[in-house]
Amino acid sequence: MLFIAKKELWDAIMEHFCIRPFKHEDIDFAYKLNVMEQWDDTRNDIKRVFDYEPNGCFIAEINGKPVGHVFSISYGRLGWTGLLIVKAEYRRRGIGTLLTKTAMNYLLSCKVETIKLEAVSAIADLYRKLGFVDEYDSLRFTGASEEITSLPNCSLNPLKREGITQLAEFDAEYFGANRTKVLHRLYQENPQLCFVSRMDSRIAGYIMFRKTKSGYRVGPWVCNPESPQVARGLLMECMETTGQNVKLYVGVPAMIKAAAKILQDFDFKQYSKSIRMYFGEKLETERVDGVFAIGGPEKG
Ligand SMILES: CC(C)(COP(=O)(O)OP(=O)(O)OC[C@H]1O[C@@H](n2cnc3c(N)ncnc32)[C@H](O)[C@@H]1OP(=O)(O)O)[C@@H](O)C(=O)NCCC(=O)NCCS
Known about the structure:
Elements: H1 2-14, E1 17-21, H2 27-36, H3 43-52, E2 58-62, E3 65-75, E4 78-86, H4 95-109, E5 114-120, H5 124-129, E6 133-144, E7 156-158, H6 164-175, H7 180-189, E8 194-199, E9 202-211, E10 216-223, H8 228-242, E11 247-253, H9 257-265, E12 269-280, E13 291-293
Parallel strand pairs: 4-5, 10-11
Antiparallel strand pairs: 1-2, 2-3, 3-4, 5-12, 6-11, 6-12, 7-8, 8-9, 9-10, 10-13
Helix pairs in contact: 2-3
This protein binds coenzyme A (COA).
Coenzyme A binds near residues 91, 93, 95, 123 and 126.
C-alpha cells in the first residue's frame, strides 16, 4: 500500500518533469552538486566544460527546479559525455538515464559515430543498459610534487599560441580526433602550465595541467610511446612549475604501464579507477599507447 502511495506521488511529480538546455545561470547549481559529490572541480572547470559545447549540456527539472545535469562535447565523429549528477533524493527513478539519453541524442544529431565516457564503476550498469560497452580501466593516481634536482633528459619548452595547431595534429594521432577547442581553451587560461617537447622540430610529447581546489590536475599528457624519457621530463617540468609538495591528480589508461611506472617512481599512489566505455562504432583512429594522462573524465 505504502509502495502504491509512493508511486502515485512520484507519478504526480514526474508530470512536472522536463529536460531543458543548460543555461549559464545553471553553473552555480551544477557547482553545488559537484561540491556535494566531493568532486574536485572548480566553478571555472564547470563553466569551461559548458563553454566547450553550450548546446550539448542539459538540466533535468521538476516544477521549475533543477535536479540534475549532464554535459557533452563533440569532436567531429567522436563525442564525449560526462559530469552526470542527479540530486540524491531523486535518484533511481530513471532521471540519470533520461539525461544520458538526451546527451547521446544531441551527439548523434551532430553526426558523432562513437560516444565515450568514464563511468564510476558502481553505476556502469546505467550506461551498459543504454548500449555502452566496457573498454578498459582508467586508473586515478595522486601524489605530491617533488623537488626536481636533475634536468629532464629531453628538450622542453613552454607551449606558444602559434604552436597549438601543430600540437592538435600530434594529439589527434593518439586521442583519435582533433580537439583544438579544448587544447586552445586550456592554453588560453593557463599558458604557463603547458609544455611541449620537440625532437628535430617534430613534437614528441606535451603536457598540460591546471589548478583544482586541492592541487593540480595533470592532463592531457600525451607522448610518443617510443620516447618515455620525454614523458618523464614533461612530468618533471610540471612538478618544477607547481613547486614542491603540491598534490597532483592524474588519470591513466590501465594498459599504459610506462605512465604508471613514471608515477610510481615519483611515489604516486592509485586511489580509484573508472571504467572507460564507448557506444557506437569502435574508434579506429586513436592510439591509446601515447596517452599518459587523459584530459579529464568529462571530455577525454
Ligand atoms: C549516477 C547517477 C546520476 C544516476 O542517476 P539516477 O537517476 O539514479 O539513475 P537511473 O535511475 O536512471 O538508474 C538507471 C540504472 O543505473 C544503475 N544505477 C544507477 N545508480 C546506481 C547505483 N547507485 N548503484 C548501482 N546501480 C545504479 C541501475 O542499473 C539503475 O537501474 P535500476 O534503478 O532499475 O536498478 C546518480 O546516482 C548520481 O548523481 N551519482 C553521483 C554522481 C555520479 O557518480 N555520477 C556518475 C559519474 S559516471
